[in-house]
Amino acid sequence: DPADLPPEETAGEAYARAERWIGDALYGRGAGGVAVDGGAAAADVGPAVPSPEEPLRPVLCVTHSGLIRIILLELCGINVAIIPNTSVTVVDIKKGAERDGHFTAKLVELLNVDHL
């Protein structure tokens, strides 16, 4: 039944949702039911790397290409028309200077398909 379908998100709404999730993962607030421990989401993929301030934790985020396009444009200023299925894009996201939910992002790897 079409009435059961969720409403479509605008690009702004989709990015706001992604931005909240990133902040939740970085600052340990809990995101959409994802268990968070010490600032890392339950989807951690590997051991924490100790640092003098706090551990660095890799977090795996899997989503659809439409949201990846929006995130890349908003975080990195990169407009990607086509995102191959199962391609790997890595964005290094770090806490900002203040612990108020701000963060910085740097593109590390874009649309890698070497594993295919």
Summarize this entry quickly.
This protein is an alpha+beta fold and 116 residues long. It has helices at 11-27, 65-76, and strands at 36-37, 40-41, 88-95, 103-112.
Descriptive notes:
The protein is an alpha+beta fold and 116 residues long. It contains two helices and four strands, in the order αββαββ. Helix 1 crosses helix 2. The longest helix is centred in the N-terminal third of the chain and has 17 residues, at 11-27.
SSE string: HEEHEE
What's the shape? globular
Structural class: alpha+beta
State the distance separating the first and last CA atoms: 37 Å
Helix share of residues? 25-40%
Strand content: 15-25%
Number of DSSP strand runs: 4
- Give the low-pLDDT segments: 31-51
What are the defining features of this structure?
single chain, 116 residues, alpha+beta, two-stranded antiparallel sheet, 2 helices, 4 strands, 19% strand, globular
